[in-house]
Amino acid sequence: MIPELGNFALMLALCLALLQAVLPMAGTYTGSTVWMGLGRPLSAGIWVFMVLAFGCLARSFLHDDFSVAYVARNSNSELPVYYKFAAVWGAHEGSLLLWVLILSSWGYAVSLLSSKLPLDIVARVLSVMGMITAGFLAFMIFTSNPFDRMLLNTPSEGADLNPLLQDFGLTVHPPFLYMGYVGFSVAFAFAIAALLTGRLDAAWARWTRPWTNAAWAFLTIGITLGSWWSYYELGWGGWWFWDPVENVSFMPWLVGTALIHSLAVTEKRGVFKSWTVLLAISAFSLSMLGAFIVRSGVITSVHAFATDPQRGMVLLALLLVIIGASLCLYAIRAPVVKGSAGYAANSREVFLLINNILLVVSTAMILLGTLFPLIHEAIYGEANRVSVGPPYYNTIFIPLMALLAFFLGVSTFSRWKKTSMEHLKSNLKLVLLASVALGIVVPLIVTGGFNPAIMLAVALVLWIVFGLLKDIRDKTANKASRWAGLCGLGRSYYGMQLAHFGVAVLITGICLTSHYSVEQDVRLKPGESISIGDYSFEFGGVVERKGPNYDAQSATINVSKNGKPYRVMNPEKRKYHASGSVQTEAAIDTGFFRDLFTALGDPRGEDAWVVRLHVKPFVFWIWMGAFLMASGGVLALLDRRYRYKPVLLAEAAVQPGSEPQPVAAKAVNT
Amino acid sequence: MNQVRKQKFLIVGSILAGSIVTVGLLLVAFDKGLNAFITPTEIAEGKVNGSHNFRIGGMVKKGSLVRKGTGTQIEFIATDFNEDIPVVYTGVLPDLFREGQGVTADGHMDASGVFQADTVLAKHDENYMSKEVKAAMDAAEKKKTGKLATEGAHP
């Protein structure tokens, strides 16, 4: 009964989504405020039914209703309750349900938080979101319905959730990732609305910015959680593999980052308008491309969903319709929204343009690398397959990001419209000297070795950090007191600086981990030990241990630091009852400056086992940097100016190319 | 040169320089990161010469896995049921690696005709056969009987 109720809720949500796709949009053409006004209640209705459907599926999981095919394939009565709930989005159908639930939540959020927007804009935005929702709902109901029953041969026991997914990191990773992916649909809908009306001004950019920031921050956290998960769960000790599935989550992030910066220019200066719209369309299109690649099985990847070509074709059709229609609209309407203000070659506009070019080129390179095996196969046939490995991505991505970090430092000091060379020189001379000098000296002293790559990285990190410190100092220098100056700077400014500081932390983590990690795979008998740096790892043998739904072989590794006992680590190999599959569970000692990573390999006779031991410096800084970046995004969207009164929005709309007001003046307006 | 021309020159110049650098990077990157996929049969036919990296795929032959002495080195045979290729790998094997299952590995051939693997990959879905392995099986089977080995193998 409950699954049927869920199914019914899905169908009702589809009906409402179809109405939402048509009526408010039609209202904008007929001028009917009633139809336009329908957008808000309809999005609330869709959301309610999606929550209901999600609740029904969750209940089926929690009550072990194995007559539901999806539950039978992805759960088991022995599964801990927490994972039963998380199993709702553990495979294709349920994760699609979560995807649509989140899509409808964004739509509902827009309808709640848009009271200050003109009704016709809201109507168009909600209609576009209704179209996307209807598309994905139809796809789910007709090709991948999570409520499909197996009433004739109901299994008495489920096949169990994939052991890799029985883990905290992975239970929270998809919701965050989808919040990000789907969040870009809001920016996308705003872009389409702008193209339809031809009104693309500072006010439009101001409405779009907080939504984009929110989606971007969620995506940042989602990708980080995925990376963190693969680090401790896959048992390889790596945190990024340039796997196609990672790439498809990274591409919308890169374009989203470009979009955030381009929106800043559009809001402040009224230029880059059509470019901004194109980025908004691209960010969401790449999100959907990601959904297609992960779910269609066109690309071999370590974490592709179970594959079904027919579903892939339907999803591809949906993708082509959405991307094709939006790009056609763009081609027709983009000339209407052209920017008019001018700027010199040395302006902040140009530095942000460079940022955009670097990000978009990186995205294009990653896209090429990800799709190249497909293209190659299409041209040369099935027999001549190729794969594109990490060296390809590292060769391209690292130099581009180094350039990006350099320009990040410059653009902080640049002014809108035109910056004199003297201004840049006088501001950056000291920062440049200090970062280059310390970049060379610090690695020499700390490591005693000459490593140009590390020196460049340290110099770039210091360049960013010194630059942002100097900028904060300069901006507060002329205020009554330093404190008053700091208080007057505004949340979006602090958000920006926090995110940029996060970039510096992230670069530090990535470079130091990549260069100074010590990784050893060794065969150890009980009582044998091996030293890595200050740490000594003594293998204490393997014992059997029973878990809730698995049997584990649990190793004891006594770690001592400089001869003193430090801690005991217990990496495991788990064999899950239901599926019979074996899963390595690494044991990690996380520290601020280094992680100790241990994983159990396979037995090699005489009670000896192969053990994987890593000492990884600064790996924690990778997650910390990403978290700081996401926090910066959230802080920026909390800025007071996004809560402007409608009157002021209208004024801003009249003068698209107007000078940005000083931050202090803005604070007064609210 | 007047100001407008100078600016135009600057813009065109930087676009040109940027494109050249990008294309250069791309060529280097493809040279480094592109691995051809080659089946055991193709290796036996002499498709590989030199020691550049490529990807091999096939099944781990039953009973072929050997763990050597005190080190972490392992040896196994990758087969497409037509030709066998010995593979040597040092390190920890992935969880899903086992005899009779599909495997892909990146590495190169050494002078004695042994594939020296840098990485060994196995898929994390038990029912899943990677496209590479499937292609290898099909190619070998076609050669033998004209039929596809993996027909009907998928649920």
Write the layout of secondary structure elements.
The complex is a heterodimer of chains A (670) and B (155).
Chain A: H1 2-30, H2 33-37, H3 39-62, H4 69-74, H5 81-86, H6 92-112, H7 119-143, H8 168-197, H9 202-233, H10 244-269, H11 273-296, H12 309-333, H13 348-380, E1 386-388, H14 390-413, H15 421-447, H16 452-477, H17 482-487, H18 491-516, E2 518-524, E3 529-532, E4 535-546, E5 550-561, E6 564-569, E7 572-576, E8 582-585, E9 587-590, E10 594-603, E11 609-617, H19 620-637, H20 646-654, H21 663-669
Antiparallel strand pairs in A: 2-11, 3-4, 4-5, 5-6, 5-7, 7-8, 9-10, 10-11
Helix pairs in contact in A: 1-3, 1-7, 3-6, 6-7, 6-8, 7-8, 7-12, 8-9, 8-11, 9-10, 9-19, 10-11, 10-13, 11-12, 13-14, 14-16, 15-16, 16-18, 18-19
Chain B: H1 3-33, E1 34-38, H2 40-44, E2 54-60, E3 66-67, E4 73-79, E5 84-90, E6 102-109, E7 115-121, H3 131-145
Parallel strand pairs in B: 1-2, 5-7
Antiparallel strand pairs in B: 2-4, 2-6, 3-4, 4-5, 6-7
How does this model look, in words?
The complex is a heterodimer of chains A (670) and B (155). With 670 residues, chain A is α+β, with helices and mostly antiparallel strands. Chain A folds into 3 domains: 2-335, no CATH class; 394-516 and 625-669, no CATH class; 518-618. Chain A contains 21 helices and 11 strands. Chain A has helices spanning 2-30, 33-37, 39-62, 69-74, 81-86, 92-112, 119-143, 168-197, 202-233, 244-269, 273-296, 309-333, 348-380, 390-413, 421-447, 452-477, 482-487, 491-516, 620-637, 646-654, 663-669, and strands spanning 386-388, 518-524, 529-532, 535-546, 550-561, 564-569, 572-576, 582-585, 587-590, 594-603, 609-617. In chain A, strands 3, 4, 5, 6, 7 and 8 form a 6-stranded antiparallel sheet that branches. A 4-stranded antiparallel sheet of chain A has the order 2-11-10-9, with helices on one face. Chain B is α+β, with helices and mostly antiparallel strands. Chain B has 2 domains: 1-34; 36-145, OB fold (Dihydrolipoamide Acetyltransferase, E2P), CATH 2.40.50.140. Chain B is built from 3 helices and 7 strands. Chain B has helices at residues 3-33, 40-44, 131-145, and strands spanning 34-38, 54-60, 66-67, 73-79, 84-90, 102-109, 115-121. A 5-stranded mixed β-barrel of chain B has the order 2-4-5-7-6. In chain B, a hairpin with a 5-residue loop joins β6 (102-109) and β7 (115-121). Chains A and B meet through α13, β1, α14, β2 and β8 of A and α1, β1 and α3 of B. β1 of chain A pairs antiparallel with β1 of chain B, so a sheet runs across the interface.
